Amino acid sequence: MTVTTCVFDAYGTLFDVTAAARRAAEQPGQDHLADVWPKLAADWRSKQLQYSWLRAVSGDYVPFWDVTKDALDWAMEAAEIDDAILRETLLALYWELPAYKEAHTVLATLKATGYATAILSNGSRDMLDGAVDFSGTRESLDKVLSVDDVKVFKPARAVYDMVETNLGVTPDQVLFVSANGWDAAGAASYGFHTAWINRSSEPIDRLPGKPTHVLPDLTSIPQLASAL
């Protein structure tokens, strides 16, 4: 069946999760972050994902904002940074993540050519509202779906079920786009057409589902959708 709907992961796919640490390092008085912010950002993201997976397995759901704060605390301790003001700065900047440079054009093109567009994210509802509004992408999205509604994180099938429930489409009508290889694998196992945005040229995850398409960025998503 022809693809009618393009569903995007949010963090790392549409929105640049490294931007909070990078922008903090650019602020006056934060010269000490110049060399450490890339590792701080990577550790923050890695723990954020690890904690979401473990909470999905254990059934101990909390909003993604709580997971994000816990992950930052771990990353700052690992970097031997004890700075409450910097912590608050980093958390505030996480609500102002910019979209990747090609995201606006891709979303607008999809909408203009008749595709339904949506976000399906681990992010809590308030986090996603903040990111969508700050990035200026709301007018190009039909739906913003948060796991808050099902109280479990990806890659639980209940999360992917939200697409059919909220958009009224079957899996073969959906192109699911994620920069997280494990998320693309989960979506592929579910039955979606999948595009893994592999910005870092990483190996494909050794998981049951395999992304049907691997792309370096979002630019060619409209062309891919039209070919499916």
- Strand and helix order: EHHHHHEHEHEHEEH
Please identify the structural class as seen in this structure. alpha/beta
User: Radius of gyration from the CA trace?
Assistant: 17 Å
Helix content: 40-55%
Distance between termini? 8 Å
Largest sheet: 6 strands, parallel
Strand coverage percent: 5-15%
CATH superfamily of the largest domain: HAD superfamily/HAD-like
CATH architecture of the largest domain: 3-Layer(aba) Sandwich
**What is the CATH T-level topology of the largest domain?**
Rossmann fold
The dominant shape is globular
How many domains?
2
Number of strands: 6
Question: Which blocks of ≥5 consecutive residues have pLDDT under 50?
Answer: none
Topology, please?
Blueprint: E1 5-8, H1 19-25, H2 37-58, H3 64-78, H4 84-94, H5 103-112, E2 116-121, H6 125-135, E3 143-146, H7 157-167, E4 174-178, H8 181-190, E5 193-197, E6 213-215, H9 221-227
Parallel strand pairs: 1-2, 1-4, 2-3, 4-5, 5-6
Helix pairs in contact: 1-2, 1-4, 2-3
